Amino acid sequence: MASTRLPDKPLADIHGEPMIVHVWRRAVEADIGPVVVACAEEAIAEAVRAAGGEAVLTRPDHTTGSDRIFEALETIDPEGRHDAVVNLQGDLPTLEGALIKAVLQPLDEAAVDIGSLVVEISDPEERRNPNVVKAAVCFPEGRTVARALYFSRAAVPWDPGDHGHPGGEEGPARPLYHHIGIYSYRRAALERFVKLPPSPLETRERLEQLRALEAGLRLDVARVDTLPLGVDTPADLARARRLLAPREG
Question: pTM above the 0.85 mark?
Answer without folding.
Answer: yes
